[in-house]
TrEMBL record:
A GO molecular-function annotation: DNA-binding transcription factor activity
Record has Iron-sulfur as a keyword: no
Upper lineage: Bacteria, Pseudomonadati, Pseudomonadota, Alphaproteobacteria, Acetobacterales
Keyword Transcription regulation applies: yes
Organism: Gluconacetobacter aggeris
HTH arsR-type domain segment(s): 4-98
Name of the protein: Winged helix-turn-helix transcriptional regulator
SUPFAM superfamilies: Winged helix' DNA-binding domain
UniProt keyword terms in alphabetical order: DNA-binding, Transcription, Transcription regulation
Amino acid sequence: MNLIDPEGAQRLAQLLRLLGIPRRLQILSLLLEGSFSVGEIKARTGIGQPVLSQQLGDLRRGGIIMPRRQSQMIYYSIVNESVARSVRTMLSLLEPGRAFASTVDIASPGVPRRMSAHSAHGNLPS
C-alpha cells in the first residue's frame, strides 16, 4: 500500500488547491502549447489583466510556471514535464478520448520557444 504521510498529504492538498481554480486551469491548458506573453495569454483566454496578473503570480509562486523576460516582454512557461503531465491528466478527465498536447516547451530561461505572429515581425522569440 502507498499510504501518504501527513506532511505529503498537506503538500499535495495545497497543490490541488492551487490548481483547482478554473482560470488557472485555462492558463495552464494554454501553456501546454508553449511559452506565451502576458498579452497573448490575455487574448487567448479572455481573462482580464488584473485577474490574469493575480493568477499568473499565484502559479509562479506555487512553482507551476516560470517567467522569462525577453526585452520588455515576459513570457510564461510550465516549469517542467511533470507539471505538464499532471495538467494533461487533469484535462483528460474532461474528455477521456482526447489527446492534449503531448509535448510542452519547458521553462528554460533565455531559450526561445516558438515564433508568434508578433515575434515573426519583430524578431523576438516568444
